[in-house]
Amino acid sequence: MTTVPNRAQTLFDLTGRVAIVTGGAGLLGYHHGAILSAAGAHVVLLDLAGANPALRAEQLTLAHGPECLGLAADITSEASLEEARDAILAKFGRIDILINNAANNPKVESHPHAEPKQWSRLENFPLKIWNDDIAVGLTGAFLCSRIFGQEMVKRNAGVILNVASDLGVIAPDQRLYRKEGLPEDQQPVKPVTYSVVKTALIGLTRYLSTYWTAHNIRVNAISPGGVFADQPDEFTSKLHQLIPMGRMAHKDEYQGAILFLCSDASSYMTGQNLIVDGGRSVL
Q: Considering the domain boundaries, does residue 246 fall inside one?
């Protein structure tokens, strides 16, 4: 007897679709790719060579079955992205889903390209870091959307998901980063570029959602809250007091929302920003 898939199964089924995840070998990118792979998609992890996206893609293939691909790419370079596009089309013949996940998010206390002294404060914030953060988090999303989105236009179908943040919706609470004993002008803060990039991604989402709606391309954003990643106890304790659910998210707790937004389960949803932050932004 033939088993007919029920509606609940087909809504979230991504069998045969090709999904690109930028920053795909990183903390959250890999988990985003994993749920799409588990739903049947061929996942392409784009990341810098040092993150070893090929190995991470192989792990997805072994774990879930559908063949996945890892490519080293610089998302701030049109040439690099065009090379990646050509490799993806040669391998799979199509592009259905793009998750713009890549972003810079350094620790507030230090940065590999800045002097350690209060680098994160607005008064001292290096222009080079401003430009780098905008290039990766915003320009990279724009270029990926343009280059990969054109392949969706050709097929008259596609999904783009921009990973924003609760800090694209609310201002950072700088009290979280304070260090006891330091004068005010030496206190570390959440860098300005993080909020700027994440807020801009929500705007880009709205723009693209109406620009490409005639081509049946849906564009949404997701705004995650904080994620457990071995942060200092002092920081997590203070942050948990600001979250109604009393804790940050575990890395896999965004997978349900990611799958929803990338699948037919959200077929009538576009131009929206889904906030998944344990309730922090409602306070």
A: no
As given in the structure block, the two tokens for residue 31 are: 């988990």
Residues in the chain: 283
Sheet containing 273-276: which strands, arranged edge to edge? 69-72, 42-47, 18-22, 97-100, 158-163, 217-224, 273-276
Let me know if residue 238 belongs to a domain.
Answer: no
> What sign does the CA torsion over 228, 234, 237, 238 have?
negative
DSSP 253: G
Say what the pLDDT of residue 117 is: 57
Please list the ranges in the chain whose pLDDT falls under 70: 1-4, 109-118
How confident is the model at residue 33, as a pLDDT? 99
Q: How many domains does the chain have?
A: 1
Condensed to tens digits (0 to 9), the pLDDT of residues 261-275 reads 999 999 999 999 999
224 pairs with which residues across the strands? 276
Q: Is residue 32 a part of any domain in this protein?
A: yes
**Tokens 């990039």 belong to residue:** 197
Amino acid 232: pLDDT: 92
State which residues form the domain around 74: 13-106+136-170+193-227+251-282
Of the candidates 83, 75, 44, the residue with the CA atom closest to the CA atom of residue 140? 75
User: Does the residue 185 lie in any domain?
Assistant: no
Predicted TM-score (pTM) of this structure: 0.95
